[in-house]
Amino acid sequence: MKKVLIITYYWIPSGGAGVQRWVKFTKYLREFGWEPIIYTPENPEYPSEDLSFSKDIPADITILKKPIWEPYNIYRSLFGKKGEKINAGLISENKKTGWKEKLSIWIRGNFLIPDPRRFWIKPSVNFLTDYLKKNPVDAIVSTGPPHSMHFIGLGLKKNYPNLPWIADFRDSWTNLDFYEELNLSYISDKIHHIMEKKIIRSADTITVVSNGMREEYELLKPKNIKVITNGYDESDIQIGDIKKDEKFSISHIGTLNSTRNPQTLWKVLSEICTENPEFKADLQIQLIGKVDFSVLEEINLLNFSNNLLKVSYLSHKEAIIRQQSSQVLLLLINQSVNAKGFVTGKFFEYLAAKRPILAIGPTDGDVAAILSETSAGKIVGFNDYQATKKTVIDLYLQYKSGKLNVDTKSVDRYSRKSLTGELSKILNSL
Predict the structure, then answer these.
(1) What is the DSSP letter of 33?
(2) Is the dihedral of CA 196, 161, 227, 50 positive or negative?
């Protein structure tokens, strides 16, 4: 069996979306003739933890770990946040961003390039170079963000030039939704772009999660680029019959930062609540995961906070149950320059949940195409008030008549096992 070394920051017990892609690939790679070897930090800083993914990993798999030094303890000491977990995606859950947070973001963007895990690059290259001398592999994969992982891959490529290397991008780098919020200087921005281009052009293959990302990175002239979307794991969704919510629940599951804040939707819901007391009595907004302060502030200002149920975190299994019990699943696309190519990881579990999806984002983007292909829901533009209101009312009327269902199709191609098969084809070709 051929061997592949997978360099990833996020691994068990990390929670959230970042860990799932390569945990699920690892789960199925042996079925396609590849033995995965994991390299991950011994003491990482995770925003959340979820041990439920442990069941997906073969007990006898090789997992290499090396301590990592990250500057977060310095940050916590300087800004009075001792004992607090780090936040992903520049989210402020309790208040508007103050000068301390702005300063820390500026330092992160301008001095910790490409990211705060940069101090792990050189020790990791040295460690893995020695490891590979005694334990050869047939390919290397680095997955980011954090993009420091790619520089470990680059270092190994320099030391083993004949060893194929795949750089996997789960998110864009300089087109990431909160990249502009890093407040980069001209020089820092230039460095980020130079580093991004270096990785793109040095790897034997680039893998990305959407067609839009492929178009974006093709401009940087990679040697080879392939799309492998995220997906859903059939074994995760086979939970049994789930009772649907009695309320007209509209559920967003996952991180909700300021660039995903659906201001038009909140205004629509507030207006319908004013016009129709029965709708207000039936409505329940469920926000599961970390939510930016700006989102909660807007809901409060529009006077329907009593219709809000906020849950900071659920395990993956609990999140899937909540998806399947919801009346409507809310999918929010980042309002950023690469919005057309932005496809969140949870979207595919939404598809598998077989509940109507209300998406807000570009109506000519990748999500719109997949919704059309699968008949899983509808998408409306960020600021299209009339289309949003009509869609919400249509969904509500179906709910009241007991006919709020979808008949999805062509979803199987997004199963984690099928996607691992696509990955194995790329590995074999190298």
Answers:
(1) T
(2) negative
Q: How many helices (H) and strands (E) does the chain have?
A: 16, 13
Q: What is the 3-state secondary structure (H, E, C) of 376-392?
A: CEEEECCCCHHHHHHHH
Strand partners, 286: 251, 309
List pLDDT tens digits, range 43-81.
Answer: 998 888 888 888 899 889 999 999 999 887 665 555 555
Residues near 196 by beta carbon (within 8 Å), at least 6 away in sequence? 147, 173, 174, 220
> Is residue 137 within 8 Å of residue 5, measured between CB atoms?
yes
In the block, tokens 């396609």 appear at: 32
Task: For residue 96, report the phi and psi dihedrals to the nearest 5 degrees.
Answer: -70, 150
For residue 83, the SS3 value is coil
What tokens were used for 353?
Answer: 């949940």
CA distance 366 to 346: 14
Domains of the chain: 2-231+416-429 (3.40.50.2000), 234-412 (3.40.50.2000)
* Tokens standing for residue 32: 């396609």
Phi-psi region of 157 (alpha: psi -120 to 50; beta: other; left: phi over 0): alpha
Nearest partner of 325 among 412, 240, 414, judged by Cα = 240
Q: Is the pTM of this model over 0.70?
A: yes
Length of the chain: 430
Question: Residue written as tokens 């699920």?
Answer: 24
Would you tell me how many other CB atoms lie within 10 Å of the CB of residue 167?
A: 29
**Phi, psi angles (nearest 5°) of residue 289:** 125, -175
Residue 131 has φ and ψ, to the nearest 5°, of -60, -45
One-character DSSP codes across 252-276 = EES-B-GGG--HHHHHHHHHHHHH-
Q: Which structure tokens are listed for 96?
A: 């508007």
Task: Centre a 10 Å sphere on the Cβ of residue 375 and count the other Cβ atoms it contains.
Answer: 12
Tokens of 140: 């290397």
> Distance between alpha carbon 287 and the CA centroid of its chain, in Å?
16
Beta-bridge partners for 226:
207
What does the pLDDT look like over 149-172, one tens digit per residue? 999 999 999 999 999 999 999 999
